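Exercise: predict the structure of this protein bound to adenosine-5'-diphosphate.
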Amino acid sequence: MTIEWAAIDDAIRIDASVKSKLGQRDAVSKELLPDREEAEASTAAYAKAIDDLQDRLYAEGTRSLLVVLQGIDTSGKDGTVRGVFNRCGPLGVRVTAFGRPTDIELAHDYLWRVHQAVPRRGHIGVFNRSHYEDVLVAKVRNLAPREVIEQRYEQINAFEKHLVDNGTVILKFMLHISKDEQRERLQARLDEPDKHWKFNAGDLEDRALWDDYQRAYETVLNRCSTEHAPWRVVPSDKKWRRNAIVAATVHRTLEAMNPLYPKPAWKASDFKID
Ligand code: ADP
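Solution:
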């Protein structure tokens, strides 16, 4: 059976003109991609193909790809990086994790640290959390006045447009998990000693604010899914389905960019190496 990637993409891509209700989106979505073995084989093949395309992007050196990963705690942002970019040479892929802003970062506008981390030409940049935290955690935990946050959606759209107009293609993935799945993943962090380091009591505070976060995400999807940088909501309760969908989307996007090796200004036959 071949996987209908175009249909899957239609199902997960947010059309901003249609109000999106996150609660109506299934975090499992079994029907989209039912077969685990097939999905895993596809992820492995695409991870390799992404590396080949990354090599071309690097050689071409004129454009870049930015992959934004957002999702609540335990949604699998790190796991997605590992699952999708594990075949890429480390030179051309840079992952940036955005945590609580430092004093220096807070002394600047919220996009300052983000702009510095945007991938240079020829690179793939992956954001583990991003500028969207400034309309998510900042909103839910009242870290900035309402009217300040209100202005940010348009500012973010304009910022992303600026990047796109200057040669950066942007892919935005919201890793969507259910509240039950989050409970299991948090519980695993308590039960398994090797996962203790991942446990953070603050995650339970955020879990208690689950509905507020879902609403804040919904607003992001409705206000910041643009033609130049649409959001995709990835059903992420199953890690293998999540990785397969992200890998296929990254691959398709790079293929559409069609980076080309530059033509040298010389012929190989001009040279002789003794
Ligand atoms: P993660 O949970 O992604 O594995 P951390 O444990 O370092 O990584 O958590 C990062 C924390 O930083 C999250 O709680 C997130 O909400 C917070 N954070 C990220 N960006 C901002 C921001 N702009 N303002 C406030 N908090 C932020």
